[in-house]
Amino acid sequence: FLGSKYSLQIITNTVLVSLYALLANFPCCILLALMMNEIRSRAFKKYVQFVTYAPHFISTIVMCGMLWIFMRNGTGLFNILRAKIGLESINFLNEPQYFKSIYVWSGVWQSTGWGSIIYMAALSGVDPQQYEAATLDGASKLQKVWYITIPVLIPTAVTLFILDVGHMMNLGFEKAYGLQNDSNRTTGEILSTYVYEQGIRDGNYSFSTAVSLFNSMINLVLICLVNMISKKVSEISLW
């Protein structure tokens, strides 16, 4: 695999999409939890939770179908909106440069609400008297978030970040395969789709198993490295 002409491109695509997804999704979950924590109306808070959690339960294949419909050249929702402001129609899923952003930001929309649940659980343990004391001391809302809320989230955030890095290279096969076509394959081919094509489609079971094991070894090295750095810097680690 490492000696083939496609290996560097596939590994590069996997790393770039993984990093992009991690850097986009991780802070969005924290920001959403912080914003929902500031909502005082219970009815409105439940409504926001429902709207943000619901996309998580959409099937991956259904999500791919929605993206194909929304981004269809000429008649898709995004191109209709572009036409309204005088821009030309683009066949987004046939353009390689858009694949990573489509994959990542659709994932952010689908998983941010669900990912914020654990942060909301951590924030529920904050003593309300701390906020009351800060108010009496004249602290602004931003200062309360910075000095009370965020420190509570740091242990949870660091732990989840280590876990996210540990499966960073395991990008979802279904979504990547569902959005791929011959036009965007140069940026859309990742390790999981390559393993599927080699193992299931072409019957190279031993070769695909070796590539999958190689991918798992990378994840093992990454989680050990990040855990070691976290332990030295913040004294928070998985073991």
Q: Structural class, please?
A: mainly alpha
Q: Could you give a short account of the major beta sheet?
A: none
End-to-end distance, in Å? 33 Å
Helical content stands at: over 70%
Question: Total number of β-strand segments?
Answer: 0
Low-pLDDT runs:
none
Q: In percent, how much strand structure appears in the residues? A: under 5%
Radius of gyration: 21 Å
How many distinct helices?
12
Task: Please state the average pLDDT score.
Answer: 90
Order of helices and strands: HHHHHHHHHHHH
Shape: flat
Structure description:
This protein is flat. The longest helix is centred in the N-terminal third of the chain and has 31 residues. It has 239 residues and is mainly α.
Topology:
Layout: H1 7-37, H2 42-53, H3 60-70, H4 77-84, H5 99-115, H6 117-123, H7 128-136, H8 141-166, H9 173-179, H10 185-188, H11 191-201, H12 205-233
Helix pairs in contact: 1-5, 1-6, 1-8, 2-5, 3-9, 6-8, 8-12, 11-12
